[in-house]
Design a protein that fits this description.
The chain has helices at residues 8-16, 29-105, 109-129, and strands spanning 132-135, 147-153, 163-168, 170-173, 176-179, 181-186. It is an alpha+beta fold.
Length: 187
């Protein structure tokens, strides 16, 4: 007897051939009641899951609304703080403008010089009230973190790295440099 040789494709085709429909199992009353109990339990679980889903969705929406409100409130507070700070700074600078206007009314050079000196003093007081410090005076030691050396001179009377001349004062607020001092450094 010869054995029939089959290829994998032939095996797949054989496996795909329709088979006779299986008869649906018949349930007795006991099996039917069991399935109804299982169905009832599953429906109960589904209801609980849907309820939990609604609760979580509501919680998520509330949290998103709270975050949105917080974001808006924080933005409004930042804007108000900036506006308040700017107004405070401008209030401190207004006396300087007043002094300049008064000095401009004088025709006598001596009175104008006196008015400008008062204005410079008022400016220094306004900056001090805002927490701005001045630096870069003749005689200080040169610090590249604070000073910008624009010239170098040889001076026997001054020490190494000493500031010989200040072209423009420097200003800082706390640790933040507002403007570097432009200086001439000796030796």
């Amino acid at each position: 007897m010869e054995e029939e040789k089959t290829t994998p494709a032939a095996e797949e085709t054989a496996a795909e051939e329709p088979t006779a429909p299986a008869e649906e199992p018949t349930l007795d009353k006991k099996g039917e009641r069991k399935l109804l109990r299982e169905l009832s339990a599953l429906e109960k679980k589904l209801g609980e899951a849907q309820k939990e889903n609604l609760e979580l969705s509501d919680k998520h929406l509330r949290l998103a609304a709270e975050y949105d409100n917080f974001r808006r409130r924080a933005t409004a507070e930042r804007t108000a703080a900036y506006t308040d700070g700017l107004e405070g700074a401008l209030e401190k600078l207004l006396p300087i403008l007043d002094n300049l206007e008064r000095a401009a009314l004088y025709r006598d050079a001596e009175r104008v010089a006196e008015g400008l000196a008062l204005t410079a003093r008022a400016a220094a007081e306004a900056f001090a009230a805002l927490g701005v410090e001045e630096f870069g005076a003749v005689g200080e030691t040169f610090d590249p973190n604070l000073h910008n050396a624009v010239m170098h001179v040889e001076d026997e009377e001054r020490g190494e790295g000493e500031i010989a001349e200040v072209h423009q004062k420097g200003y800082k607020k706390g640790d933040r440099i507002l403007r570097y001092a432009m200086v001439t450094v000796a030796n």
